[in-house]
Design brief:
- The protein has one domain.
- By secondary structure, it is mainly α.
- The chain has ten helices and no strands.
């Protein structure tokens, strides 16, 4: 399949081709059937992130953070996916971002390596402050932690 066409024509149905497709095993027997194709899509994304829809970015971020949890390691591109997810998707994709950063320590640390605009940070802080944790966040402590993380990003810009 042509990667450029896949990216250009990406729809929700195409997620089956890039989602984490794990065989349930670890170590030498670990297998993610979609990894080879997903890596090709990730290479394309890395060189042309603006050509990838926010829906594709979200699906790649989900797949890569699920992979990180079970593979006991993380692809460094997770930080760029996270950055694009928040910068372009803003509060609409905050929950997806938080689900990903909650998928183990590797995914969490890589998801925090984002460079966000001041405008994005401020919008996400307002979003975190205005939401009930149980309604908008994957678990009860994440709203506060997310807000504190964003505030530290804001402070580092000053």
């Amino acid at each position: 399949m042509n990667i450029k066409e896949f990216v250009k024509d990406y729809s929700e149905e195409d997620e089956l081709k890039i989602m984490f497709a794990w065989n349930g095993k670890h170590s030498e027997e670990f297998l993610d059937e979609n990894m080879p194709f997903r890596l090709e899509v990730l290479k394309y994304f890395e060189s042309r992130p603006d050509e990838c829809s926010i829906e594709l970015v979200a699906a790649l971020y989900c797949a890569e953070t699920e992979y990180a949890k079970e593979a006991w390691g993380v692809n460094r591109i997770v930080s760029l996916l996270a950055e694009q997810l928040l910068e372009r998707g803003r509060s609409k994709y905050a929950s997806e971002y938080l689900k990903g950063w909650g998928r183990g320590m590797d995914a969490h640390l890589q998801s925090k390596q984002v460079q966000l605009s001041m405008e994005c940070i401020q919008e996400l802080i307002s979003f975190a402050k205005s939401r009930k944790e149980k309604d908008e966040f994957p678990n009860s402590s994440q709203a506060q932690y997310f807000k504190e993380f964003l505030e530290s990003k804001l402070e580092s810009k000053h």
